[in-house]
Amino acid sequence: MEKELRQAVKDAASNYFRQVHGGKREFKYIPPSGKLLDENDLLNMIDASLDMWLTAGRFNDQFEKEFAQFLGVKFALSTNSGSSANLLALSALTSHKLGDKRLKRGDEVITVAAGFPTTVNPIIQQGLVPVFVDCEVGTYNINASQIEAALSPKTKAIFVAHTLGNMFDMDEILALCKKHNLWLIEDSCDALGAEWNGKKAGTIGHIGTYSFYPAHHLTMGEGGAVVTNDPQLYRIILSFRDWGRDCWCKPGVDNTCKNRFNMQLGNLPFGYDHKYTYSHIGFNLKITDWQAAIGVSQVKKLPAYIQKRTDNAAYLTKALSDLQDYLILPTVKEGVKPSWFGYLISVRENAPFTKQELVEYLEKNGIGTRQLFAGNLLRQPMMVDNEIDLRIGNSPVLKSCDLTEKEYALLPQTDFIMNHTFWVGTFPALGEEQLAKTSAVIHAFVKEKTNS
To answer: Which residues contact 79 (CB under 8 A, 6 or more apart)?
Structure first.
């Protein structure tokens, strides 16, 4: 009876979806990003709701397994956001279980200022010192050739993002990590499915992170994941995610280790319940099974979604190629197969118009735009209004609140990106009609400004 009742609910939901959401999607305003949900996503949500399990359960188990298989990694752990994934990845490297390799307060982490704040925030939150290296215009990734000069005896890790799905120079950065014994965290929140010589973003360094916010390649509404091939790191990340506990039992399961009342850890009495033994100062950053159910449906569509993003970016490159006297279009390093989160455009310094003028014209004409997130994090109130220890390149340690134009000048391309760069959409719901309009509006603006 339960099976028949469940199917009846799902049949009704299918009918609802087809009648309410099944029509052609119309765009009065072309957004730069957005979710793409279908009938199967809804049915999985319904299925999880009917289980009434709520916390991570069977759908989460399935998602973690299938996501790891898609990426070709040994371990994948879901979490409630990409920002939480970054927090977990960096926190894991502070674990006492890593011995001499653990990150300690005052240690340094190489990163960039042109990006999203939650790549940098965990460095600061864990009492570490961010060391900012400049970026390249075109790829908008970290300038790997400048990293070695920024290293010091306190540098222990590199933590940077693959910008909008375009991967940074893995060969050079991996060589540096090996030479100087550095950890590498790949923030792949905007780069799910991108490849470097056939290996997927997030699977090449020690830890990779992903976001499943509606704007991203795969969505759970809110959600993210951390992946690794290292079983010790997996256990540590799991502990930090699940309250810091030493136990690795799944929700609703007891005594996985078969040793629940036979341990003595810390200064606890022998036999104290392992289920309530904590080895890290952790968090609770799990997802619900309802979210995981959407992920299970979405992960099956990832190859098609990624191909559509690739096709959309290629369309824009071809359509805008005649404007390169005024605009800088994205460039890709040899061996990289991007998985475009968005399409980055920079206005050249000698152009007869500004980025601001172009962005306002696009928005006025129904084309959504976004900045490259924070532009230059060092100029943001979060830095200016706080006393945060940091370094820029090979500078000594500075206080963020004391930075002046002299210090900002150490990151010239980061400031260029802040002043000249924006992006438009490539997400799978956009078709040729929307991309053609985007191109036409940009062309009309340039013609108006250049009288050509």
So the answer is: 85, 88, 223, 224, 225, 226, 241, 285, 286, 287
